[in-house]
Amino acid sequence: MSQAETSRRTFLTGALAAGGLAGAGILGLEACAPTSSSDPNEPVTLNYWIGSAAISPAAQQLIDAFTKANPHITVTPRGFNGYLALLQGIQSSVAAGQAPEVAGIGYNHLQYAASVLPVTPVADLGVTLDGYAPNIRALGQSKGKQIGAPYTLSVLVAFYNADLLAAAGVDTTNPPTTWSAWHDTAAKIKSAKGVPTINLQQYPGDNFILQAMAEGNGGSVLQCSTGHYAAGIAQPESIEAVDYMAQMIKDGLSLNVQAAQASQAFLAGQTATLITGSSTTVTLKKQAGFTLGAVPFPTFDSKPRHLPGGGNALCSFAKSSQTKAATAKFINFMTTAENLSTNANATGVLSPRASGDSSDPLLKVAIDERNDLVPWTSYPGKNGLQGAQVISDAVVAVLGGQDSAQTRLTAAAKTIDSLFGHETC
Question: Nearest 5°: CA angle at 188, between 300 and 214?
C-alpha cells in the first residue's frame, strides 16, 4: 500500500480513514503472550506511535476495545507526519531513554531500525503470525529474523479514469495491463484528448515506484552479493526501466510531478491514470468525479511482476518483562484476522492475512497482487537513511532530462556500494 510505503504511501492528504467499525468483529482479545515475573494485572502503559499525523477512528476503536478487555493496560497513541518523522521521533526518544513500547515502522526503514535501534524482535515476544504467507512475513524481517509484525499493506495498482479512456476510443472493458500496451494507449489518448496518460505518483527520497519498475524488468535496487550488500541500480535492466520512464516523459505521454500534484492532476481529469498505492482506494472513490477503474501494476510484457510491499510493521522497544508481555498481547490483538479486516474495511489498506481483506470490489485488483509482493528495499547500518535519497536524487535528475540513466545510475551505484558494501546481508 506503497508509503505512500503516508506512509506515507498509505493515504492522500487529509484522508487517514474512511468510516468506522460498524458491523465489524473485534476479536482476539485473549491472544497469547509471554508470562511476566510481575503481577500480570499490575497497571502498565504502552506508548503506541504511528506514521500518520492523526489517529484514525478505526485505530482508536481497536485500541478502546483492547483496553476494555485488558483494563490494567493503557495504550497511549501518538501520530507522526510520515514514517521518516516517526523514525526520527523514535531516535530522539531512544536517546532520552523514553522509547515507545510499540511503533508502526515503515517497511522501507526496517533494516535501518533493526541495525541501529534497540528493537525487541516480535519473534522473541511471543507474537504469533500464523496465517501469514511467507512473502508477507518477510516484509517484517531483517536477516531472517522477525523484527516486526506486518500490520498494513499497500500495493501498487494503476487507477484509471474510465470516462476519459472511453472518450478517447479505448476499450475500458479490456484496459491495458503491460507497459507496451499502456504506451500505445497513451499515444492514442494524447492524440485524441491532448493529455498525458501515465502518472506515476512519486515521493521525494522514495524508491517505491523505482523498485517496482526495476525489478519488474529483471533488475534490482539493492542486492545481496557474496554475503554483502551491493547496488543493483546500475544493472542494464534497471537502467532500461528508468530510461523507459524518462522517454515517456520526453514524449509527453507521462507526467513528471511529485505526489500531491499527481493526485490533483488525476482527480481534475488532466491525466488518464494514477499509478499509486492501493491504500488510496477509499479516498479516490470519494473524490473522483468520474468512473474509477483499476488494473494491476503494468508488467514488461511477459516478465513477472515484483512489487514492494508498502505499509508498516508493528515493532517493539519494550524493556521490562511486564511491558514486553503487554506489548505481545497488544500486537497479537491488533493482528488477528478479524481486527485486520476491521482496519482494512475502514481505511482501505490491505490486510497481511488473506482472511482479513476488505470487501471493497475495487480493491480486488490489489488483493490479487498479494503474491507478487517482495520486501520494500531497506538500507541497513548507520548510513541507512541515505540510501534511498541517493538513488532518488539520481532518478529525479534522469527524469528531469539533466543526464542519462546510464551516467547517473552508475554514479549512484558507486555511492551505494561505498555506503553499504561493508554491511552483511
Answer: 20
Calculated CA dihedral for residues 52, 118, 383, 13, nearest 10 degrees: 0
Nearest CA to 151 out of 313, 317, 333 is that of 313
Grid-cell match 477512528, residue found:
57
Asked if 50 and 80 count as a contact pair (C-beta separation under 8 A), the reply is yes
The β-bridge partners of 218 are: none
How far apart are the two ends of the chain, measured CA to CA in Å?
Answer: 25
Which of 25-39, 194-208, 282-296, 409-423 is predicted least confidently? 25-39
Tell me what the mean pLDDT of segment 35-41 comes to.
56
Between the alpha carbon of residue 335 and those of residues 7, 31, 73, 149, 327, the distances in Å are 18, 10, 17, 8, 12
Are the beta carbons of 142 and 384 closer than 8 angstroms? no
**178 DSSP assignment:** B
State the pTM of this model. Answer: 0.88
For the chain, give the longest Cα–Cα distance: 72
Task: Name the E strands within 317-366.
Answer: none
Instruction: For the beta carbon of residue 282, count every other beta carbon within 10 angstroms.
Output: 24
Residue 370: DSSP 8-state: G
Q: Which residues pair with residue 373 across a beta bridge?
A: 307
Q: How far apart are CA 417 and CA 425, in angstroms?
A: 13
pLDDT digits (tens, 9 = 90+) for 381-420: 999 999 999 999 999 999 999 999 999 999 999 999 999 9
